[in-house]
Design a protein that fits this description.
three-stranded antiparallel sheet, 18 helices, binds carboxymethyl coenzyme *A, 3 domains, 432 residues, mainly alpha
Length: 432
């Protein structure tokens, strides 16, 4: 049987055979038969805007691989910096490459004093740290003017290193400002997660020593969040980068998308939901309310995973290791009960709604002492590696500017009427 589809334009009777390649059919071929007829696909449910060799996802089987390596093996045996290298350069580093890479990242952790003093400290006292991060990442483009040289491989590499190195510093600075604590400079004798924890929590001690189990758990969470193919924030990054904007502006757009509660803000929403549920015996009523259309079960469901998110399984195990150090998060019992109730309920089963990566990650972050507002920020730190891998891939593929079409459903042509001659309009903006 040929690996192709045949389409027929019933208006003209013309047909065309289009090959199926790598699981897709070319819209360019389609347009040859049907010029001016667009694919109507809100939310890109059936659209692949690119080819990518970075991350493989099988949502039915619950499979996730970075550059071919199963996420379970990477979470068990690798480190975030090694995974970042893998995502960016396609192969695991050899020992010399890894030493050089770690050294580069470590020596770019400092941020310009003006970013902190003049920019971050200019925010309102109760600014959300993710809002601060979105702006700070965009502001970096004004500090590194060479970032515009996107076709120069040396400049590209420099910006990638800067972004991955500086994200924890910006993230911790946003937190310290929001709680009125003095900024902590990076300690370049520490590893990536240890340094971040030092910038978050250090008070007066000469050197902050993170608990190794907590530093490792954070590193595992960073690995799990490092990439997830064409998710909303990566799509935002690719769209902006396709216009050849500098990588800081593109990464800021990605951060802004990640801020939303349907995406990276979901871990924050999960904790708020569990807190609202309040007790074990309220779970059934809460699930009933969701089924009746009152809100959603946060941390449940996924556009691609139609079985258990493999990251959620790993996070559930990591949670035990964290709780052994911090003590159990009291919300855990509510979360477990919620999962049990949902996974035995026809509503969730028939829609194939399972816990996603955000269902348990917030519980770990909260047990480690991170304020809820920091959760999306914790997601953005590692996802920067994935965003940058997609940025390089897009530029290497010389991708066209993202510019979809629309199906126009508005008014037909009509003549302008002066204000004095207009009748009262039934349409008005909402009133206070
Ligand atoms: N709780 C209750 N019902 C849900 C949920 C949920 N969390 N998610 C989807 N549904 C229902 C939805 O009401 C719809 O039902 P019906 O067919 O009767 O109208 C059906 O399932 C399909 O939902 P959808 O909105 O068409 O699915 P989608 O692929 O467009 O949305 C999603 C995916 C992740 C936005 C959605 O599942 C959701 O809002 N989940 C809660 C937020 C969340 O946990 N987000 C994190 C996603 S994973 C990490 C990340 O991407 O950052």
């Amino acid at each position: 049987m040929p690996d192709s589809i045949t389409i027929t334009d019933n208006r003209s009777g013309q047909s065309m055979e289009i090959p199926i390649r790598d699981g897709g059919v070319s819209a360019g071929e389609w347009s040859k038969l049907l010029p001016g007829i667009w694919f109507y696909d809100p939310g890109f449910l059936s659209t692949a805007p690119c080819e990518s060799a970075i991350t493989y996802l099988d949502g039915d089987a619950g499979v996730l691989r970075y550059r071919g390596y199963p996420i379970e093996q990477l979470a068990e045996q690798s480190t975030f910096l090694e995974v970042a290298y893998l995502l960016l350069f396609g192969e695991l580093p050899d020992p010399a490459q890894f030493t050089a890479w770690t050294d580069e990242i470590t020596h770019h952790t400092f941020i310009h004093e003006n970013v902190r003093k003049r920019f971050l400290e200019g925010f309102h006292y109760d600014a959300h740290p993710m809002g601060m991060l979105v702006s700070a990442v965009a502001a970096l483009s004004t500090f590194y003017l060479d970032a515009k040289e996107i076709h120069d491989p040396v400049s590209r590499h420099r910006q990638i290193v800067r972004l991955i190195a500086k994200m924890p510093t910006l993230a911790a600075a946003a937190h310290r400002f929001s709680v009125g604590m003095p900024f902590v400079y990076p300690d370049n004798s520490l590893g990536y997660p240890e340094n971040f924890l030092s910038m978050m929590w250090k008070i007066a001690e000469p050197r902050y020593e993170a608990d190794p189990a907590l530093a490792r758990a954070l590193d595992v969470l960073f690995i799990l969040h490092a990439d997830h193919e064409q998710n909303c924030s990566t799509t935002a990054l690719r769209t902006v980068a396709s216009a050849h904007a500098d990588p800081y502006s593109a990464a800021a757009a990605a951060c802004a998308a990640l801020y939303g509660p349907r995406h990276g803000g979901a871990n924050e929403a999960v904790i708020r939901m569990l807190t609202e549920i309040g007790s074990f015996d309220q779970v059934d009523d809460f699930v009933a309310a969701v089924k009746a259309g009152h809100g959603r079960l946060q941390g449940f469901g996924h556009r691609v995973y139609k079985s258990y998110d493999p990251r959620a399984k790993i996070i559930k195990r990591a949670a035990d290791q964290v709780f052994a150090v911090t003590g159990k998060n009291p919300l855990l019992d509510i979360a477990l009960k919620l999962e049990e109730v949902a996974l035995s309920d026809e509503y969730f089963l028939s829609r194939r709604l399972y816990p996603n990566v955000d269902f348990y990650s917030g519980l770990i972050y909260q047990a480690m002492g991170f304020p809820i507002e920091m959760f999306p920020v914790l997601f953005a730190i590692p996802r920067t590696a994935g965003w940058m891998a997609h940025w390089v891939e897009l530029l290497d593929q010389d991708t066209k500017i993202a510019r979809p079409r629309q199906l126009y459903v508005g008014a037909g042509e009509r003549d302008y009427v002066g204000i004095a001659g207009r009748p009262a309009s039934p349409k008005a903006p909402p009133q206070r």
